[in-house]
Amino acid sequence: MPRTVLLVEDDDGIAAPLLRTLEREGYDAERVAEGLPAVDRVREGDVGVMILDLGLPDIDGLEVCRRVRAFDERVGILVLTARAGELDRVVGLDVGADDYLAKPFGLAELLARLRAVMRRQGPENPAPSATADAGPATGLRVDPGARRVHVAEREVPLTSKEFDVLALLDESRGDVVTRTRLMDEVWDENWYGSTKTLDVTVGRLRQKLDDAGSPDRVVTVRGVGFRLEDSAPDA
Fold this sequence. Notes:
By secondary structure, this protein is α/β, with parallel strands linked by helices. The chain is 40% helix and 22% strand. It has helices at 12-24, 35-44, 61-71, 86-94, 107-121, 160-171, 179-186, 196-211, and strands at 4-8, 28-32, 47-53, 76-81, 99-102, 140-143, 148-151, 154-155, 176-178, 216-221, 225-230.
């Protein structure tokens, strides 16, 4: 994954020290102060993670997230906001953010969350051949090393959390993975939001698998968790 971190923040008092911290930590950091230039910068390529403030002067940060996700599912998005309430957190994740941090925040916590988003994105520029021989020519194939998902020969673009949920389900294919395990392993101990976040992520994942024509489906086991199963009938 590219090391460039794009900071989208209009408040100079927040942006300046955060940029210095990122550079001191070894990141190639850039900053823009508005949403539309941020979308254009991501479109240019080589941005690994975007640290995105929701309160921007031109367009809302959630709209930035929507526009970026329309053409790039791989860039990590860490949302910063002074807004309070569970609804904002769920909406932010629903439009494709990978994590959510409320202001005021500590630099140590932000850096920890940034590292977590980058780890979930996997190695930089995985070769297309990494999954060429993995599994049969048809069906759903999950490659944890390259962090890629294919249905037949078609790659399915997933956000980092969508991939992590699917990878856990694939590890235990046919068995139920509890909601508790998914929350503990995909969302770290710093997450204090609602488990509705998991439902939002699973909903997006199902839609993407359906759109790709996947023969496998994510089944809800009410009150327990989820199961990844082949839709083919039993012999």
